[in-house]
Amino acid sequence: MAQQHAEDSDYQQQYEEVTSATRITAILRPLQQQHSIVSIAVPSAKCLYNSTLLEVNPEQGYLLLDELHPREGHARLGTASKIGLSAHREGIEIKMILEISEIGSDNGVAFYKTPYPKLIRYRQRRRAFRVPVSAAQSIPVELVDEQDNAFCGELHDISAEGMCVRFPPKAAIPEGEKTQALTCTITLPGEKRVQGRFILRRITQHETSRCIQVGGNFDQLDKTQARLIERFVLEIQRESRRKQAR
User: Is 11:43 a contact under the CB 8 Å cutoff?
Assistant: First the structure.
């Protein structure tokens, strides 16, 4: 049990909001095709109910959900009811809010129709814990795309596997498809430099500061570069523990 808890603590959940209809479909379609169980939160109910996605139809702009189980959940629903849907697939937790537009029945089994979601949220579990870097420390990071455009930001957090780079609200940032490869240069304290490939995974904007955050994974780092990052991560963790002990 203790070992399992330790393994779970190695994961950190990465939060992202998805608004692209194409990406939303790519995330939801496997849930439908694999008949995955989804959890439904109903207003005023203290428990979650189970359902499945019967149809994912971005062309006509709707989802179809199967009857809730246990069936008592069905009695709590009406048109215009807002429900919360959550699901897990391949280490990703998916969440969204839906509004029921139609309740129907097929061979005595209820189904629910909702408008196609415009936004879903997911958190991706990953092995390496990312440590936050103090804004006061100011670790410069340069990202360069295939057209040799350079984008300069500061390190927001880092692990042995990846990092998040912080840019000012109106700064130029890498554009293009997610998963594109960039060249990155991180200037660590003591003028130590880490250079390698960086695979872009997400671009988000912090709600309060409006700073833009670009996250992704390191790719094909050599042993020397990997050790520099590991040592830097350990130094940040030690400093954090020292501050907490004061």
Answer: no
Helix-, strand-, coil-residue percentages of the chain, each rounded to 5: 20, 45, 35
CATH number at residue 28: 2.30.110.10
Q: Which residues lie closer than 8 Å to 201 by C-beta, 6 or more apart?
A: 162, 178, 179, 215, 216, 217
Are both 17 and 118 inside the same structural domain? yes
DSSP element (H, E) containing 170: none
In a domain, residue 1? The reply is no
- Could you tell me which of 124, 88, 95, 122 has the C-alpha nearest to residue 216? 124
Q: In this predicted model, what pLDDT tens digit does every residue of 155-198 receive, in sequence order?
A: 999 988 899 999 998 888 877 655 678 999 999 998 899 999 99
Give pTM, 2 decimals: 0.50
Express each pLDDT in 120-144 by its tens digit: 998 765 555 678 888 778 999 999 9
Number of C-alpha atoms within 13 angstroms, CB side, residue 30? 10
State which of 126, 151, 177 marks the end of a domain: 126
CA distances from 131 to 9, 229, 232, 235 (A): 13, 11, 10, 10
